Task: structure prediction
Amino acid sequence: MLSNLIGDRALAVGLPAAKRIAGVVTRLLPIPQPTLMVGPGASGRLGQAVGGFGHRQVLIVTDEVVSKLGLLKPLVDALAAAGTGFTVFDEVAPDAPIPVIEKGIEVFSREHCDAIVAFGGGSVLDAAKVIGLAAANDRHPRSLVGYFRALRGPVPIYAVPTTAGTGSEVTVAAVISDPEREKKLVIADTRIVPKMAALDPLLMTGLPKPVTAATGMDALTHAVEAYIGYWGTSFTDRMALSAVSMIYENLPLAYNDGANLAAREKMALASTYAGLAFTRANVGNVHAIAHQLGGKYHTPHGLANAIVLPHVLRFSAAEITGRLADLAIHARLGNEGESEEELADRFLDSVEALAASVGIPRRLDALRESDIPALAKAACWEADTSYPVPRRMTQDDCEAILRALLPPEPARRSTPAAKRVRKKAVAGKPAAGKKSGRRRAPA
Ligand SMILES: NC(=O)c1ccc[n+]([C@@H]2O[C@H](COP(=O)([O-])OP(=O)(O)OC[C@H]3O[C@@H](n4cnc5c(N)ncnc54)[C@H](O)[C@@H]3O)[C@@H](O)[C@H]2O)c1
Ligand SMILES: [Fe+2]
Result:
């Protein structure tokens, strides 16, 4: 117990210092940005461009849903017209499980591929990044987990996102899942950023409403966490605030009318802007918790973020009032000159309202009381070791946040002791000494 306490205190003091240094390094790190093609038909135009690069055999990584919807046609037609060979690997499953990636590596090597087109949601894009990196280094994906663990970069990767959420088309990260250990794992390397990406709203008109909602809320979470964390730069702030404006305006439109091409295109752009923000400024406590829920219960990533986001924002609110006020202004919820506290409150309420308007539940049915201590421990570790959060979560704080997500009785089996704990738990325990938080200049 005492050693836990000492460990916790050491973490509380030592890690913020280490993370501030990492923040400076990240600020200086050159992160490549892909050439973007935007608009209806962009996936075919990307196919024409890739066809012109002289690749011999392109591996198209996708999933069965995307493949069966026929979304690949403009790309493969363009590659065929250019005389470029291609192989379609369409077995990626949600959250890019390691066994699927192993299969993809086999196909890549067997076909002697010299480029990859990742065509699908974040799971596909991330699987493709890891297939490329693992194949180039003849390494198992597990051995690449962490930062810059590979010697060589992958063959050129081109990306066609078919969801508007992860921003993976511009990020240094790939999130994969280890089904054996019920864990999500992050691989980060600047060399896995795609060389070119097509944001094509025509591919997104058939996205089911729950996927539109969850992925859109993932993009919002990226923008918000990048903006409230302490690694932000003027560029990431600008990207994050633009993404928030676009998401508040267009997510309900895309959700209510999936065929609204203008709204789909704006959501795709917002997702990319949020990706550009968080690939440098990183994410925070919301992602730290959501990754555990995804690993344990296979909760779709965006859904987990959407359910957790309001709780983490209320938990951190006293530290970031000024920044929440900025977000409120960019979400068009108020004007400069109004009180920061009022604007911040309005933003907190609006996040819940936006999530509800796109059918996001407030609780997580799969969550079990008995899992909470281990989930919280893993989330705190991830946040402590990786993310520049505005307020550090202790084990108790994180457990309280998770308990607020438990489904209502009788959707769960629970002990009387657990019920007593839940009654006591208050997710939004205010921080000592309310501060306004550094307010950044609006973009
Ligand atoms: N690399 C990063 O920077 C980053 C950032 C955030 C999240 N992620 C990871 O990305 C993954 C989630 O990606 P996602 O949210 O895009 O979901 P996803 O890729 O798992 O796709 C969700 C579902 O939508 C379907 N789908 C995809 N495109 C479609 C379309 N156009 N029409 C109809 N159905 C379609 C898929 O088949 C799948 O069933 C998670 O593993 C998450 O951790 C990565
Ligand atoms: Fe995310």
